[in-house]
TrEMBL record:
InterPro entries the UniProt entry points to: FAD-bd, FAD-dep_Monooxygenase_BioMet, FAD/NAD-bd_sf
The entry's keywords: Monooxygenase, Oxidoreductase
Entry's Gene Ontology molecular function annotations: monooxygenase activity
Domain of life: Bacteria
Lineage: Bacteria, Bacillati, Actinomycetota, Actinomycetes, Glycomycetales
Domain FAD-binding: 5-332
Protein name (Swiss-Prot/TrEMBL): FAD-dependent monooxygenase
Native source species: Glycomyces tritici
């Protein structure tokens, strides 16, 4: 079927949804709260499942051109700089690293500017048997359906799922930054500490994304100099970490607390003609690198469901059946990975370190591929081209 849709939010998930819906012939209006369409953030990775979803949307080649292959998940180091595991020379690099703004730009360029309305703060939703409605401070918009891709602190989720608690903080905080440094792809790495980690991801144009994840006793604790707060937490770590901090302007350091719905996953992603997508539906920790990837998958499955039935409500119900089990499984797995990395027992950390030191890179790559098959092996449904 074809019809009209309103997408709330012009982030990665919202733009992916708009691209998918336009690809199947729908008329789409995107409502963005900010006065300009852009992406705030630092770096991110996309795994094979997300790249295949981008292919289904018709933007895979452009996305790959904006990314950089990296090996962080198979280059594991301890705080002194010693290697727990090295990526095999010439081995595969299934992950692509992006500056968040670069991937967002690829998606933004695939949506006509006239389809995006900025400065639109959403205040409410309504629906009947025929249409759904989005109310903003200045206008009301109606369409056959609404896709709410309005992020972790979703207005749609709060208003339409009022019994659902807010995403919960679980003693986990992350600093992120972009360093001006030229680093080869095989120098990307993950440094594992007792209750923290430091990710290093080379990007295009002689930039490097880094992230420090660490335990935190309370949310919303901020520092006058966030870069110095990072430096204090890695004071005795290896030289690459400090070189990256030295090459990062203070104003490029972001600090965010990690929250998710692991304690109370949603019973459905759909309310009549209104569907949640991405972080609005399934906020998750960054520990599997799948937050944006799940949103892109959501967009493809939603478009495929709408392409195959004339009834929007039936299509959204199918979207919920297909997406909720997978997305909530990934969110739960990410939560567990983060918890184990930052809050696991000292004995388990020593056993992991010993196992990694004894395992050859080839065996590690094989074991990792098997463990990740359920996540990375996802195949998108085909979308009809326009």
């Amino acid at each position: 079927m074809s019809g009209s849709a309103i997408v709330v939010g012009a982030g990665i998930g919202g733009l992916a949804a708009a691209i998918g819906l336009r690809r199947i012939g729908w008329d789409v209006t995107v409502l963005e709260r900010s006065p300009e369409v852009g992406e705030i953030g630092a770096g991110m990775s996309q795994a094979p499942n997300a790249l295949r979803a981008l292919d289904a949307l018709g933007v895979g080649d452009r996305a790959r051109a904006a990314g950089t292959p990296f090996f962080a998940t198979t280059n594991l180091r301890d705080p002194s700089g010693g290697h727990l595991m090295r990526a095999p020379s010439g081995g595969p690099h299934p992950l692509l690293g992006f500056h968040r703004a670069d991937l967002h730009g690829v998606l933004r360029d695939a949506v006509p500017p006239e389809s995006i309305r900025t400065g639109m703060k959403v205040t409410g939703f309504a629906q009947n048997a025929e249409q759904a409605e989005v109310q903003t401070e200045s206008e009301t918009f109606s369409a056959d359906l609404v896709v709410a891709a309005d992020g972790v602190h979703s207005t749609a989720r709060r208003l339409l799922w009022p019994d659902t608690p807010d995403p919960a903080f679980w003693n986990y905080t992350v600093w992120r930054g972009i360093a001006d440094l030229d680093l080869a792809a095989n120098e990307g790495c993950m440094t594992l500490g007792a209750d923290r980690y430091f990710l290093t991801m080379p990007l295009t144009r002689s930039r490097v994304y880094w992230a420090l994840g660490a335990q935190a006793e309370a949310p919303r604790v901020r520092y006058p100099d966030e870069r110095e707060a990072v430096r204090e937490r890695v004071a005795d770590w290896h030289g690459l970490v400090h070189g990256l901090l030295d090459a990062t302007p203070v104003d490029r350091v972001l600090h965010h607390d990690i929250t998710d719905l692991d304690h109370a996953p949603l019973p459905t992603f759909v309310n009549g003609r209104i569907a949640l997508l991405g972080d609005a539906a399934h906020p998750m920790s960054p520990d599997l690198g799948q937050g944006a990837g799940m949103a892109i998958e959501d967009a493809v499955v939603l478009a495929a469901a709408l392409a195959e039935t004339r009834d929007a409500v039936t299509a959204l119900a199918r979207y919920d059946r297909e997406r909720r089990p997978r997305a909530q499984w990934v969110a739960k797995a990410a939560h567990k990975n983060g918890h184990d990395a930052l809050m696991g027992s000292a004995l388990n950390r020593r056993l992991l370190s010993l196992t990694l030191r004894l395992m050859t890179p080839a065996v590690f790559a094989k074991v990792s591929a098997q463990a990740l098959d359920r996540l990375w092996g996802w195949q998108p449904p085909a979308l009809p081209g326009r």
